[in-house]
Design brief:
Number of domains: 1
Shape: globular
CATH topology: Spore Coat Polysaccharide Biosynthesis Protein SpsA, Chain A
Order of helices and strands: EEHEEHEHEEHHE
Radius of gyration: 15 Å
CATH architecture: Alpha-Beta Complex
Oligomer: single chain
Structural class: alpha/beta
Length: about 160
């Protein structure tokens, strides 16, 4: 993108705040951004203990901050995420991970149970950084989500004109 996606505005609101708004509309009271405070768009921020090593470390940090509860992880580049989609993950049956699925799974839109923290930590300590590969070691439920809610903004042409 050439700039930090969390701060890119769509309809006057930074993408990170759009994702947070969907989470709050679904009833999540505490929304925390894992990473630098200057990219949190005014949200509560906690430092990523493994910057530059991918999102698996961020998920571990979120589980640590939320302990002993579950966390709903949503990437900041899902600006069309909605409360209905968030609620679908929150309402999914108990498991290690409830992950959103459209035509494919979206591991950065998932509810992570504290039961998976030890396994994730072992994988991370062993050098694993790919969230989709880490899922293979956990009990996972896939939750159908409407396609539009999980459209990522990865390139400038993905932004609305």
């Amino acid at each position: 993108m050439g700039r930090d996606k969390a701060l890119i505005e769509i309809d006057g609101l930074p993408m990170a705040r759009r994702v947070a708004a969907a989470m709050r509309a679904a009833g999540i009271e505490r929304v925390v951004a894992v990473g630098p405070a200057d990219l949190a768009s005014g949200l509560e921020a906690v430092p990523d203990e493994h910057p530059g090593e991918g999102p698996l470390g961020g998920i571990l940090r979120a589980l640590e901050v939320a302990a002993p509860g579950s966390v709903l992880v949503a990437a900041c580049d899902l600006p069309w995420l909605d409360a209905e989609s968030v609620s679908a993950l929150l309402d999914a049956a108990p498991c290690d991970v409830a992950v959103g699925r459209t035509g494919r799974i979206e591991p950065l839109f998932a509810r992570w149970s504290p039961s998976c923290a030890a396994t994730l930590q072992t994988l991370f300590d062993g050098g694993e950084r790919a969230v989709h590969r880490a899922l293979a070691s956990l009990s996972v439920i896939e939750v159908g989500i409407r396609d539009e809610a999980l459209i990522n903004v990865n390139m400038p042409e993905d932004l609305p004109s």
